[in-house]
Amino acid sequence: MDYLIISDAHGDRQILVDVVDHYRGKVKAMFYNGDSELSRSDELFNDLMPVIGNMDTDPMFPDDRDYADDNFTLYQTHGHLVHTEVSLNQLREVASAKGVDVVTSGHTHVLGAEEIDGRLFINPGSIALPKGQYAYLGGTYAILTVEPTQFIVQFYTRDMQPVDGLRFTFKR
Ligand SMILES: [Mn+2]
Known about the structure:
The chain is mostly beta strands. 12% of the residues lie in helices and 35% in strands.
């Protein structure tokens, strides 16, 4: 079962339209990790499940989200409320208290997929304003594949192509 994770479009609404149109009906859920700079009532959020970012002005966005289905549990938040620009320590504490399988955030614009405290932390990077060593890709999102014995994270570029070398497997 696949899940889309995308973040930090910062007003680039069209790329979100393109990605959502591409994945609608092909993934079980779509997570949007904040800083769209759009209204909560934008029709994009009929498909994308959002949280509030530090650059979002619509107070109707939730601070965070606890997601669960038959396959796994996930905690979603932008990151500024737990200061992920400094470290993941506060987010780790929240995730540990919740006991979720997967944690996803945005905010730093730096992509990442790593196992910490026995759970998977995913930052899809920014689809519009990437930073870090993969900024040259021009923007990324992630597809999380959830299987009974493993998680697979594959990062994609704006033209919806998988990036060689940015596929990670984590045992459950
Ligand atoms: Mn941002």
